[in-house]
Design goal:
heterodimer, A: mainly alpha, 2 domains, 13 helices, globular, B: alpha/beta, 14 helices, about 35% helix
């Protein structure tokens, strides 16, 4: 039973990765741009020397395998993916996409995990309290701004924070992931460096936390309204259970289930939202890299980055699927 | 017999000490934008120890609102606007929140409507029986796990369930089993009073019967009083000792069940009982014409008068009531709200028709 469940979820995991990879392979090619050709003609024009460009392009295309038929390129791409070989960057030659990701992903991962968890926990608690303690004016007052807040995109909010705390009232740095120009940095074992990282991370983190916190709070509040109307809530009160037991073990416990489903579904959105925040704050994460890769049509980096994001989202969903039956007994491992 | 003994004997037969539930002039209003809805208005009745009372009325007549208010489980915008509720002498409306919480389940327990969703879906049956017990027992009196476990099995057996149900989740149980679990929870602390709000409304008739038999058996074993809210007159006839009839927020008749079926006094009750299908007489069903009134602006005088066969001089009712109607000053019906009066021993009726003879 359990095995069947795990196998079926794993199959779904691999199918979604396969579909995502296919889309990732074809999407950049649909733009109809030939990045190598464009790049070299640009360079050649700049140097005023236009001879042999076609040959150079052809040589590079051969190097990258762009000269082969599309199906063959696709096949090679998929085979390489199984070894997590994401190929070589076109413009950051000779670095591989894996190397480039290795440099940037730690920043994105740290920022998204930290902000994701903080926003989810605080937002969920606030949403629950907003509905439960209806006579608390502070919580009631926060309802309206939260509603607007939850609808604001991260990066817009990031721009606002940047304007206020970095320019109008410059208390926090608004650019980069750490103080640049210091010899020997990044050095993760140095305290000053870590302090600098925290300082630089504050504004990007805040712009994500505050917005998604409001979203979680609204969602949780809505669920609490529904849960409060359930018959088991009436029985919980009729059983003479203390308020805190009704709150935690009955109301919150049941309202959190859809929140967790939402968390799995939102993971992709959080990450993609984060990408734009990284652009706004020139944060050294995957987002910034992806952004510039799209601008110069570096297919390899686009493919690699999007693949890693898709993989991460699928993996998180898989993990949640695996633990969901443990938190909701109505979902059985046996059912597919 | 010494004086002391005589006093004790006198106390024992004292009618008041027999009353488990005394409700006096209870008013439950809903504050709405359209105005104040008097969902329960001036309701008074008493219930003796071990007695089973049925409470019937149309949808919106205030029966569930009143039942919830008895346990102070009413939710805003409902407010208790006045009256007293005494459970075994304890004035429930004067208790603070914590005292009221302690009273629930221990002294007055609820068997909920809608058995399907009354149990928390994420916990096992065992946990849901135990948490009620746990939060009514102080730390040092708390029985240890094996004792508690035994108690859960006992309770489940007492409602006709197997002990292994304790380790099941609500979604693994049928509707009837869930309602049995609800009965086990309600009786876990042997309350003085069980409030059953349409406990069988979501169940088929066979399961209904089993549940009612189980409730009756538990009630007799514990000598608890029961207030059964519903609109199934057949169920009431089989289960209740006394019946209260509510109409538009008022208790319009309150009497022993046999008498109310044989000789209903209030015109509404008469219509209600004559509307019941008869297995021997095939033909047209007769209902009660009209709709229940809005409780924001109830009809002046008697709330039933717009639909009342007596007031409207309905032909079908003429023969039986010619005498009384001749004496009835019908202008009272449209101006004065009738009070619940005891016109014969234990026969309470709120109708102007009987005030003259009373």
């Amino acid at each position: 039973m359990v095995l069947k469940y795990i196998v079926s979820r794993l199959a779904m995991f691999f199918i979604s990765i396969f579909v995502a990879s296919t889309v990732i392979f074809f999407l950049p090619r649909l733009t109809g741009q030939n990045p190598l050709e464009e790049k070299f003609y640009q360079e050649a024009q700049r140097g005023g020397y236009l001879e042999d460009v076609d040959e150079i392009v052809a040589a590079f295309e051969e190097q990258y395998g762009f000269d082969k038929p599309l199906y063959q390129q696709y096949f090679t791409f998929m085979v390489n993916l199984t070894r997590f070989d994401l190929g070589r960057s076109i413009f950051s030659w000779p670095k591989t996409v894996n190397q480039l990701l290795g440099e940037t992903i730690i920043w994105t991962l740290a920022l998204s995990l930290l902000t994701g968890v903080i926003a989810f926990v605080i937002g969920t608690i606030m949403g629950a309290l907003m509905e439960w303690k209806r006579n608390n004016s502070l919580l009631m007052v926060s309802f309206f701004p939260f509603m607007i807040w939850a609808a604001v995109p991260y990066f817009i909010f990031g721009l606002v924070l940047l304007t206020v705390f970095s320019f109008a009232w410059p208390v926090l740095p608004g650019y980069g992931g750490y103080q640049t120009g210091v010899v020997g940095w990044p050095n993760w074992s140095e305290l000053d460096f870590l302090v600098s990282v925290v300082k630089h991370g504050t504004l990007p983190a805040l712009s994500i936390i505050l917005v998604s916190l409001a979203g979680w709070a609204m969602g949780m509040r809505g669920m609490m309204v529904t849960t409060k109307g359930e018959d088991y809530m009436l029985l919980a009160e009729a059983k003479g259970l203390p308020g805190r037991v009704q709150f935690y073990r009955y109301a919150v416990r049941n309202s959190t289930l859809p929140q967790l489903t939402g968390l799995a579904l939102q993971l992709g959105l959080i990450v993609s939202g984060l990408l734009l925040v990284e652009v706004v704050f020139a944060y050294p994460g995957v987002g910034g890299m992806l952004y510039s890769a799209i601008r110069i049509s570096d297919h390899a980096i686009i493919q690699g980055t999007v693949f890693v994001l898709a993989f991460g989202t699928a993996l998180a969903t898989l993990i949640l699927d695996m633990i969901y039956p443990l938190i909701d007994p109505r979902i059985k491992y046996g059912a597919t | 017999m010494t004086t002391a003994e005589a006093t004790t004997a006198a106390v024992n037969v004292d009618i008041h000490s027999e009353n488990v539930l005394e409700v006096e002039n209870l008013k439950v209003y809903y504050d709405t934008d359209a105005g104040q809805v008097k969902a329960v208005d001036d309701v008074s009745f008493t219930l003796k120890r071990g007695e089973r009372m049925g409470l019937v009325g149309e949808s919106g007549s205030g029966k569930t609102t009143m039942a919830m208010a008895l346990m102070r489980l009413h939710k805003p915008p409902a407010i208790i606007a006045g009256g007293t509720v005494r459970l075994d002498g304890l004035s429930l409306l004067d208790l603070n929140e914590e005292e009221m919480r302690q009273t629930r389940l221990r002294d007055i327990a609820l068997v909920p409507q809608g058995a399907m969703n009354s149990l928390n879906p994420v916990y096992r049956v065992r946990d849901q029986i135990v948490d009620g017990i746990k939060h009514h027992t102080s730390g040092d009196e708390m029985p240890n796990k094996p004792v508690l476990s035994e108690r859960v099995v006992e309770l489940l057996n007492s409602v006709g369930l197997d002990g292994n149900v304790a380790d099941m989740y609500p979604h693994e149980l049928s509707g009837g089993m869930k309602q049995r679990v609800a009965l086990a929870i309600a009786t876990s602390l042997r309350p003085k009073m069980i409030l059953a709000d349409e406990p069988t409304s979501a169940l088929d008739v066979v399961v209904q019967r089993q549940i009612m038999l189980t409730l009756e058996q538990l009630q007799q074993e514990m000598q608890a009083s029961v207030l059964l809210v519903g609109h199934d007159m057949g169920l009431m006839a089989q289960f209740a000792d006394v019946l209260g009839v509510m109409y538009a927020g008022h208790l319009v008749e309150f009497a022993p069940i046999q008498e109310i079926f044989e000789d209903p006094k209030h015109p509404y009750t008469k219509k209600l009982i004559s509307s019941l299908p008869d297995i021997e007489v095939k033909g047209q069903f007769t209902g009660i014409e009209g709709l229940p009134p809005t409780l924001v602006v109830p009809p002046p005088g008697c709330r039933f008068h717009p639909r009342c066969p007596i007031y409207n001089d309905d032909e079908d009712f003429r023969g039986e009531f010619t005498d009384i109607r001749g004496q009835l000053d019908t202008s009272l019906c449209t101006t004065v709200d009738p009070h619940l009066n005891e016109i014969e021993p234990r026969r309470w009726v709120a109708c102007h028709m009987y005030e003259r003879s009373a």
